[in-house]
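Researcher: I'd like a structural prediction for the single chain below. Treat it as a standalone chain; there are no partners to consider.
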Amino acid sequence: MKKYAVVTGACGGIGYATVQRLIRDGYQVLATSARPVEKAVDMFDEYGNAVTYLSANIGTTTERRTIIAQAQQLPRVDVLVNVAGVAPKVRNDLLEMTEESYDYVMDINTKGTLFLTQAVAKIMLAQEPDEKGQRGYIINISSLSAYTSSVSRGEYCISKAGVSMITQLFADRLAAHQITVNEIRPGIIATGMTAPVKAKYDHLIESGLLPNPRWGEPEDVAEAVAMFYSGSLRYTTGQSVDVDGGFHISRL
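Model: Treating it as a single chain, here is the predicted structure.
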């Protein structure tokens, strides 16, 4: 049976690595991001018909509906990976956070993820189980910021904590229908989002912040995504996995 996946944020480091991994595993991928087609086409050319790229911002209702309409044209949707996310355009102290910045981050990271998941879950519910008895796998990419305070980007932390609860809610709602919903919390990953603060994180890593003292790579996260959609963890739902070099470990 041919397998189909939808990946948001597909032009970013984690999203692109996830698309590549899905294709290697034989999936047909609907890859979406807000990047214009003409700026993204070269990224996916080598994969031919294995990937369809759609330029759409999940933070807007109209463009989110475009993604959903495209997904409905697929024979089925076996996997949804919610990667799309943004950081604040300007890092401000919590006491200086603006409503505009809050709305910008929350509309994409949390509201967009919530309502796209809602729509794709309905597609999954309407389809027959696969050969493993599974209707679908939903994997949300949140962040260590879901539980770690960064007072210069509070809106981002709040948005990712929201993604964690979205995971719990949909896991609860969909478990009886053979759809698992799990979450990956990346740590310090070498992507476009972390590039502007590379010097800061280089120093923190060199100073012993991480038990595994290196930057994470997008492929590290993609491997965890593959673990969830492989079908080997069908009795696991509502779970979070930290891909963070051990950042989450409380140490003395």
